[in-house]
Amino acid sequence: MGNSAFDKFIEIMASFAEIKIVAALRDGFIMTTPFTIIGSLFLLIANLPIPGYNEFMAGAFGADWAAPCYAVFGGTFSVLGLICCLGVAYKYTEAEGCNAAMASFLALSTFIILMPATITIESVTGGDVIPKAWAGSNGIITGLIVAICTGMVSCYCEKNHIGIKMPPSVPSGVTRAFEALTPAFFLFTGAAIIFGLCKFVGNTTFPELLFNVIQTPLQGLSDTIVAGTIFSWLQTILFWAGIHGPNVVGGVMNPIMLANSLENQNLIEAGVDLATDPRAHILTAQVFDVFMKPGGCGATFGLLIVGLLFAKSTQMKTILRLGTAPGLFNINEPIIFGLPIVFNPYMLAPFTLAMWAAMLITYFSIATGFMSPFGAVQVPWTTPPIIAGLLLKGIPGAIVQIAILAASAAIYFPFMKAQDSAFLKEEMEGEGEGAA
Q1: What distance in Å separates the CA atoms of residue 250 and residue 306, rounded to the nearest whole number?
Q2: Which long-range contacts link 8-14 to residues 24+ away (Cβ below 8 Å)?
Q3: Cβ–Cβ under 8 Å, residues 335 and 320
Q4: Which DSSP state fits 136?
Q5: Distance (Å, rounded) from C-alpha 393 to C-alpha 385?
Q6: How confident is the model at residue 53 (pLDDT cuts 50, 70, 90)?
Q7: H or E element that contains 55
Q8: Is the preceding omega at residue 340 within 30 degrees of 0, hence cis?
Q9: Which of 36, 81, 235, 274 could in theory staple to 245 by disulfide, Cβ–Cβ 3.0 to 4.6 A?
Q10: What pTM does this model have?
Q11: Distance between CA atoms of 376 and 19, rounded to whole angstroms?
Q12: Phi, psi (deg, nearest 5) at residue 360
């Protein structure tokens, strides 16, 4: 009965991963990687956790030396809602075999129509602006909804040939442009109606409404140990069952975690100390991408450590040696599929518990004030453990990652020994058969 229920769960999650919207969210967010990594690099340059660094740079280049770095931040993280909207619309429409580029442009315009048309600074109101406050983290949910709706409308019109028909002699580029008139009319008209209803009925805008009704509660729910546990267990259990858990869960989780990071960054720029402010989010993108996954999903660097030190079987030692180089850069597919961890009863418990322990250690390190919450600064997910912690949070970050490595190694040790003994027994039996 238990196995039947588990198999049903895996079947449901596999089906969930194949849903077009989920795949579009996942693949669209992957497209934001160059923007978040390069934006983080410049933000890191402006905020290196080295005592006296800022004073030295200010003395060498002037008090406003970091302005170019923050300009890059403004062109990446501060418009991430727009970037997500473009990427998700493109990936959804591309997967349907339709005009992905045009759908992205339509999504961009639709998003801008829905955004606040004015900003107020110190009682002075200005118009004809694109407010970065709603083009960035606060507008991510709006951007995702706009992207999916745009993809659906565009694909429906294109597949059903709803639009202006051009003669065969007209160049294909012109034809495709005119074909977009019909979905553009539907989308822009719908956006105008929504804008008017929000403005004249609720005295608000669509992004502000979604932020207050959906995004803020979701971010609040995501910032708990319960949410961290669910996200962690889902990723590892699915990966153990042969489904790429981080990709499945990431389609839902990444937008919220990234929004948490960007809200923390807004507090930093407002002069707030994240370590003492209750508004700061503990669970952010960095916690899930860097601190919970030393060696990769399942915190398998701990397995590498104890396996290389204590394994006796040729099979275990060989596979772990081959997996060490990629594991150092948090790539663990050679171990997951080579050991294997997938469908291996010896490895389900440690694979799940090690990453959960990493989440708990990081959570309580931040909650107790040992390490401050994360802002927008990120490092590439391939940055080796300890170095990543050092770059993100200095000495406290490195110490937390060392503690995570020690905990994951302790969790993996007895299970690795059991697996190693099984391998060793098989090898000895094979040698006995060969001698006979």
Answers
A1: 29
A2: 10/238, 10/241, 10/243, 13/234, 13/238, 13/241, 13/243, 13/248, 14/243
A3: yes
A4: T
A5: 13
A6: confident
A7: helix 53-61
A8: yes
A9: 235
A10: 0.72
A11: 30
A12: -65, -45
